[in-house]
Request: fold
Amino acid sequence: MKASQQPGHHGGLLSERTAEIIMAVFMFAIGVVMMVSNYRLGAGWAKDGPESGYFPFRIGIIICLACLVVLAQTIYGRKGPSKAFVTRERFKPVLLVLLPTLLYVAGIELVGIYVASAVLIASFMRAMDGNGWIKTIVISAGTNLLLFWLFEVQFLVPLPKGPLEAYFGY
Reply:
């Protein structure tokens, strides 16, 4: 009998139970970071009302409490084998989106948000949909030129720029 056919084997990369524990711990850490950073801002009540960290600090407490409940339910509430959270076949498409997105985030620091966004859109259009070069260039460049005009010119909201925008004086 194969391992994937044995009772209790979920046949995936990660079980639901393990995924829930990982996420509960991760979100608990986010709640702790919220509480610590907002405590530094001031999480109490001043003469004129709540300090700037008052409500976010309490949201951090709620997040931590909810994570403890999820963790307890996950550890103590279920009996028997856990289902697969994700299989190898289902994880591949996730990576096809996740890895370029991580590169995109890193690229924003290097070349600015507009160039990085144009490259990301063009990459997805070519790799995922197989669009032609002209359509890909027109849509990816046009979208980011429109966004540049909207944010930088109309709303006067500066977004991260790179060498290309610096060359044109922005």
User: Anything to note?
Assistant: Residues 1-8 have pLDDT under 50 and may be disordered. The helical segments are 16-41, 54-76, 88-111, 113-129, 133-154, 163-167.
